[in-house]
Amino acid sequence: MSIRIHFEEELENLKKQIQELALDAKESLDEAIRVLYKGDVEAAKKVIENDTLMDRKEEKVNDDAILMLAKQQPVASDLRRIIIAIKISSDLERMADHSTNIAKATIHLGEHHGIDVDPELREMGVIAMDMVDLAMKAFEYEDISLAKKLAEMDDQIDRRYGMVVKEMLELTAINPEQIQHIMQMAYVARYIERFADHITNIGESIFYLVKGKTYDLNK
Amino acid sequence: MSEVMVKKKNNTVNKASKREENSFGLQKEKANHIIEVNDLNLWYGSDQALYEVNMDVPEKQVTAIIGPSGCGKSTFLKTLNRMVEMVPVVKTSGSIKYRDQEIFNRKYKQEYLRTKVGMVFQKPNPFPKSVYDNVAYGPRIHGIKKKEILDQIVEKSLKGAAIWDELKDRLHENAYGLSGGQQQRVCIARALAVEPDVILMDEPTSALDPISTAKVEELVQELKEKYSIIIVTHNMQQAARISDKTAFFLNGELIEFADTDHLFQNPQDKRTEDYITGRFG
Q: What keywords sit in the KW lines (chain B) (predicted)?
């Protein structure tokens, strides 16, 4: 039975904040992609607005973590738990920024851009959202075998990203007048790919928490 | 892996000396060992206080000993200069070598050992004499009478204990009139005056305020250039700040002995982790 009940509660609270941020990041991507396919400029603006809330939540995680470092002077796994909270919250915040970028692309494209959104982008989004779920499961149970799977899923995203870029290039040859719009689609693919990279970083943080050593899952 | 897991009653103990690697798995220059402890057991009457302790103390480094009250860390410290034998019912088995000489050997001179392996205690314990006489006490016992030599020793020792500048004009004041932190540094100067090799410190800052504690901690860092220091402390952050190696004792056993950086970041034994994270309950 632990004798540091208050500290345990603070750690648990930090964990909950991270899980909440992860849910927000996932929902932001889901919404950004939905809005992209609908071409809904107003809803895209809402995605951008929500990003400010996430920034605040990330600041709260950092403030709480810094206070815990100062007050509790943690060592060993406690120290790693707090350090990764800071790192993971930063990754989640960056992920939400990529959702915002997708929303901005939707605004750029406007409501009547006249080209079909590549279905591959939706597929990439689905995998990225599955990755968030898996990362949070790995985080909850401190399970590095799950964290490892993130690297495999990230590889799938990278392959699909390569295909999308190739398709877009071909499309520019056929529709040179649509180049601005096609470029925006390629950017979206890039944003999803970067979104997934940050989830892989979360996997690395979980490795560090469990093993006390740094791992590169992006290799 | 740099961690050294220590197994109770097991002769195949992996010692620090045999596996000196840093956290990147690279070989480091092997440290010389000033004290080598092998299979040390100790009993107070019929109660066993230390079990099969194996530990090599590196030369000119700071070795911290941590563990809960009653774990045997102070007993272990006092065994290193045989001070523990002042308790009449104490029995020991095993071996402690200081500079390759067995200190439990009957022919080994205790006076020599206690000169070379000095000790600083938890509560500053100056003699009710002047600062000068406190520091000159040991050298006088060793037969040094010439004032100019004693003057030199007192100055050198007080400088070594980083308190010369504060006390050079108060050398003939009674040491009792000094602050706790100053008294403790005078006691360190007193230990230095007989030119020791190893300094044992038993919770030397637990009775001091944070400023005095910081001064003693700084001093320990300076002293390790010339001396090997073994410090028992209840202050985990102090062990993390000032020591090169840390030993964790529990119920008379040495549980883990590793590089301090590693032990506080990623201890290998769950019991060490539970203790340093404050989860012993």
A: ATP-binding, Nucleotide-binding, Transport
